């Protein structure tokens, strides 16, 4: 009798974490490594938020809380949805989890049965398909190529929907591409969804506040109120508030779904960290001006990286609308051989050779479901980005 579960064989470890770990191993060996694979801001958590965590400790707010969030945080989340998105929810319609990943996973575990399908536009965040598989569902990926701006079209969505479709997982601005959907583009998608009332929508809005230039964020239930009763709107404090390690994500949706998610959480992790919850209250209710200041830095870095990568032979790098990633196409590099003798058969070979030969860690596109590409996180210093892009240029120049 096998000891490990058969379910575990259906999933693979996170490629982004694997690449980050590989870069760390090389760095520990004394190599000069620039890591562009981790998706977290390089800014410190704002001082007022950190202080709120310290106050919680000093006040003894370190015990168990309600399974899916303290009332104060749920009220702050309701106010955030009303303020930022024009969406009205009650605290009973809000779930708080240990990061956005747990919230997404809880929703899938609470709703999927064998044979249920989940539509996932590709490129996608690496965890989406594996979470669906762990929950017993079937991921249905829909390729959204560079010619469509890495975005799902209404025609492609319509073609992917079957009687077995239960969810559409939707992410804007996107990890890994930074592509954001305009209100008109979202409206076209919601018109399709309104014709299929058995399909629910799970939105990952984690990068909502990281939007640049003329791009204006909106979320599906905001664009089409008729979808609200079958939409789970997921968000969190990790990216915009530089709180990745605090591990607080949240969602709002129909109360029966929220209750089901709470039931599941009660038998798995129980409540999120009490201290982090109080810090998240301050994040949502406190000053928000630092977000615009941080975005100005991210936008400058975006422009630096896009310009530099587009100067590399064989590389095409679109300009993203938000988040802190670029997703360059490397079709012009495939089939060539690196200076170190590696045949660039695919984007994984490109990323591996780039790390080994030039000491730059990126994540290969196959991990996100669309090749040949790689993902760069530009959530690091200008100096590191300039040096990394120079190394990538040198690597591409030497391909033969």
Automatic annotation (TrEMBL):
GO terms for molecular function: L-aspartate:2-oxoglutarate aminotransferase activity. Pfam families: Aminotran_1_2 (PF00155). Residues 32-392 form the Aminotransferase class I/classII large domain. InterPro entries: Aminotransferase_I/II_large (IPR004839), AspAT/PAT-like (IPR050596), NHTrfase_class1_PyrdxlP-BS (IPR004838), PyrdxlP-dep_Trfase (IPR015424), PyrdxlP-dep_Trfase_major (IPR015421), PyrdxlP-dep_Trfase_small (IPR015422). Its cofactor is pyridoxal 5'-phosphate. It catalyses: L-aspartate + 2-oxoglutarate = oxaloacetate + L-glutamate. Keywords: Aminotransferase, Pyridoxal phosphate, Transferase. Its EC number is 2.6.1.-. Belongs to the class-I pyridoxal-phosphate-dependent aminotransferase family. This is Aminotransferase.
